[in-house]
Amino acid sequence: MLLAVLSGFLLAIVAPALHRISGRYIGWVLAILPASLTVYFASLIPDVRANGSLVLEYAWMPGLDISLNFLVDGLSLVFALLISGIGTFILIYAGAYLAGHKYLARFFVIMLSFMASMLGLVLSDNLITLFVFWELTSITSYMLIGFNHEDMEARKCALQGLFVTVAGGLALMAGLVLLAIMSGSYSLSEILASDMALHEHAFYTAAVICILAGTFTKSAQVPFHFWLPNAMAAPTPVSAFLHSATMVKAGIYLMARLNPSLGEGELWSQALMLFGAATMFTGAYLAFSSTGIKKVLAYSTIMALGTLTILIGVGTELALTAFICFLVAHSLYKGALFMIAGALDHETGTKDISRMGGLRKSMPATAVIACLAALSLAGLPPVFGFIAKELLLESLLEAPFWSVGLTVAAVASAVLIVGVAGLVAIKPFFGSTANTPKTPHEAPFGMLVGPGVLSLIALLFGLAPFLPEGALLQTAVGSVNGSPVETHLALWHGVNVPLVLSMGSLALGLSLLAGWRRIQPTLYAINTSGARFGPEAGYFRLMEGITIVAAWQTRVLQNGVLGLYLLLLVAVTFGLTGYTLLTKQGITLALDLTDSHFYEWGIALLLLAAAVFASATHSRLGSVASMGVLGFGVALTFILFSAPDLGITQLLVETLTVILLVLVLFKLPEFVNLSSPFERYRDLAVAAFAGIVMTLLILASLDVQYFETISSYYVENSGPLGHGRNIVNVILVDFRALDTLGEIFVLSLAALGVLSMIKLKAEDQHKP
Amino acid sequence: MKSNTLILHTAALFIMPLQLMFSVFLLFRGHDEPGGGFIGGLVAAGAFVLYAFAFGSEATRRILRVAPRDLLAAGLLFAIVSTIPAFLSGQPMLTAHWWELPLPGENYLKLSTPLIFDIGVYATVLGTIMTFVINLMESDE
Amino acid sequence: MESLMAYVVGILFAAAIYMMLRRSIVKLVIGLMILSNAANLLIFVVSGMTRGAPPLLPEGADAPLGIVADPLPQALILTAIVIAFGVLAFAVVLIRRAYEVVGTDDLDQMKDTDT
């Protein structure tokens, strides 16, 4: 299992090399991995069906209670199968769609990394690992949206997607930590297994709000939906994979995953139903009023994400069954439709639906697949989408509360979505032939196999719903519900209320479609003028505000005057130190003059005189000379007080320092007084204050010892263990040799720094 | 920068070998008496700096034989090499190892990883200071 | 002696900080040098000052004969002295380079060089 998750990352590393070898068949070659992963996950089905769930453990950072545990149950397996299965076809498709692109290898690297992160996300058992994978998907998504990085618009959209999802990710992190505090465990399987009443916990509201902030941003719920259509700047395989079938469902996954634990609170279900319904209707409406084929699909994805959120919120067994069915159906048809959209774009050279028409003659296979997928989108028999939609309506009708409102919203959305399905499948392919920028040809095989197989699977599942149901869906519904559920999927339920609603919406939708060419411009105009007040405008205002605040604080704090920085640092550091000293330790002013010899007094006075003269003099030479005096005074102190090694070192360094200063410093101008008297007195006051604090600190520390010193160990063991009689040297090269090693590396770096600064100058002079 | 004083020339020629010998002496006795790699390296650097002031940077480069930068690298290499015995025997990094090589007569040569390490420190210190001084002098010419 | 040195170290720190706050870049370097001396002395003083008992073992003995000076701060200061020299050399060359490029030794004039 560890290998299954990580294999995507591993393959990503070698993908560029493979690309060089396999050339134009790179898509097919890489698709072997997700295909075999699909088989592997499918082979886990019997085990999961028998046992409910598997937990596979790999310790990672045991000290921090972070482990690479994997939780395999019905829900995660459904997602894993969707990711690897659809991933297989996406890779094949991308190989054809981006054939000859100069960054093709880079594309596959990011795409495979994304796939691995997504698998890690849905299979993680540990909350922290889940979060890490969650952020990895955000980052890879960012890189994929901005894949055409020469395009400024793409970069902007990528950044927007990143900001929105990562801001949500931060909230999610807080939410997950709260959840772990509430339940006492970072393991999902343990949280799900415990029967604690989390919704009575004091943190419940905060945790739910934080987690939902994360899942809503990721899954593009209103009011965070605006980043998803903009993410369509990505190449179409990315849109098909990340922004319809997988990544945007990560939020849905997490809500479904936590539903058994958090779903008992009213806040949870009401928030989900409310935001879900708003998202569903907004998405359907915006889809119908757009013209770009990818935007249409993006908005219809938002509608689907809203629907899924509602169904988790309703939370009845029927609703959860509808949830799983709708999830699978949507991934199948939306992945297919995006690939069709890419094929249309690729072959006709335009993304604008209103400029396409009559393409069935030149692209017959594409047309058939598109119609099949659109049947699912519209929720018509005999495909799997129909079953899902019937279940959806039925469960909303039987919802414990807000049933009427939800049903109305769902039917209204259904009407619009029928129209959207028509836009995607009927408008481009039927009617009179329109002139397109490129003369359309049938799409290459690699671009058709994916949507074709996905649509056929949807058809198969529709005709024989017992196949997926028996295999996995029932188990999956059980894991969202928290306890096993009996499901009954069938294509034909007889004439009932949902069927009537379906048929009604179909009729209305088709009539809307007929008038699309007339109403669309009006709707579009309304949307554009309304956008000024929408959440996206808010996002831009927020970004501008951040820039303004950043510029302001840079002007105030980072003003570039080194003296002020230092002044502030010194004042704050010594102020706080002094305060702590005063309150914790008290002040002593002991000055014992009796324990010093007269020559020691002499040295002390020498040091003082040198320091004061060096700071007061106006002569550079005098300053440097007094530095020499100071250094030799310090060396003398070391020698007098039993530190011969220090004394020698200090003397030698002092000599070399003077040489260095002679070599360099005298190339610089003479001292002049640059600052005003006020600045000098201010600096003097701060410096004096710092000096006083240091003195008090030393005086206070002379009387206390908080820890036992480790020096005695070195003194005792220098002979027996270190085989040396100079204890200082034994410490340097044996006991604490690692410190010394670090030190000589620092020294080397300083030397290299000096070397490069001097050499750089030499190069500068060559090119004036 | 180059001095033309006869006294400095003569002094440098005579003092330098003594200083270098003394620096090696300090390096090897450092484990038992005051001295060691840092001090030895500084003394050696002092010797070469004296020579550089007397005869110029070009002559100093010649007498050093290797570029100061390579001296630096060699020093780091020595220090790293001294970690290998501990690594091979699976002990924590830089654990000391001691060997006693018998010499003719009653004497033994004490050889150890700390000594190799100290030689590395010596070479690094010397290399660092010579990099500073020689390059600075050359940039003035 | 420690209490006397405490006042000396305090004044060294004050002098160092005063010099580092000057606008002239050469004074900044002088301040840096005083500061490193002050810091070394600080460690030396705080760990206690012992007269005439260097941390050396007598020939053939495995333990010192009496109380010796604390070797650990000495090892720390020894590395600190050499590091301070390296840092000083780097700073001095950097300053000379900056002076050559910017043409002034006034730190307040250098504040816009990164734009």
TrEMBL record, chain A:
Main subcellular location of this protein, as a coarse class: membrane
Domain MrpA C-terminal/MbhE: 680-759
Domain called NADH:quinone oxidoreductase/Mrp antiporter transmembrane: residue spans: 124-407
Domain of life of the source: Bacteria
Pfam families: MbhD, MbhE, Proton_antipo_M, Proton_antipo_N
Residue ranges annotated for the MrpA C-terminal/MbhD domain, each copy included: 605-670
Transmembrane helix recorded as keyword: yes
Location of the NADH-Ubiquinone oxidoreductase (complex I) chain 5 N-terminal domain: 61-108
Matches recorded under InterPro entries: CPA3_Na-H_Antiporter_A, MrpA_C/MbhD, MrpA_C/MbhE, ND/Mrp_TM, Proton_antipo_N
Membrane topology designation: Multi-pass membrane protein
Keywords carried by this UniProt record: Antiport, Cell membrane, Ion transport, Membrane, Transmembrane, Transmembrane helix, Transport
TM ranges: 27-45, 77-96, 103-121, 127-145, 157-181, 201-217, 238-256, 268-289, 296-314, 320-344, 365-388, 400-424, 445-467, 497-516, 562-582, 598-616, 623-641, 647-666, 686-707, 740-758
UniProt-annotated location(s): Cell membrane; Membrane
Record carries keyword Ligase: no
Name assigned to this protein: Monovalent cation/H+ antiporter subunit A
Native source species: Marinobacter azerbaijanicus
Automatic annotation (TrEMBL), chain B:
Intracellular or extracellular location(s): Cell membrane
Membrane disposition: Multi-pass membrane protein
Key words, A-Z: Cell membrane, Membrane, Transmembrane, Transmembrane helix
Pfam family, one: MnhB
All copies of domain Na+/H+ antiporter MnhB subunit-related protein, residue ranges: 7-131
Record field: transmembrane: 7-28, 34-55, 76-99, 119-137
Membership in a protein family: Belongs to the CPA3 antiporters (TC 2.A.63) subunit B family.
PANTHER family: NA(+)/H(+) ANTIPORTER SUBUNIT B, NA(+)_H(+) ANTIPORTER SUBUNIT B
Protein name: Na+/H+ antiporter subunit B
Organism: Marinobacter azerbaijanicus
Top-level taxonomy: Bacteria, Pseudomonadati, Pseudomonadota, Gammaproteobacteria, Pseudomonadales
UniProtKB/TrEMBL annotation, chain C:
Transmembrane feature ranges: 6-21, 28-49, 75-95
Main subcellular localisation: membrane
Entry keyword annotation includes Protein biosynthesis: no
Ranges in coiled-coil conformation: none
Compartments where located: Cell membrane
Keyword Cytoplasm: no
Entry keyword set: Cell membrane, Membrane, Transmembrane, Transmembrane helix
Topology versus the membrane: Multi-pass membrane protein
Family listed: Belongs to the CPA3 antiporters (TC 2.A.63) subunit C family.
Entry-linked PANTHER family: ANTIPORTER SUBUNIT MNHC2-RELATED (PTHR34583:SF2)
Name the UniProt record assigns to this protein: Na+/H+ antiporter subunit C
Protein source organism: Marinobacter azerbaijanicus
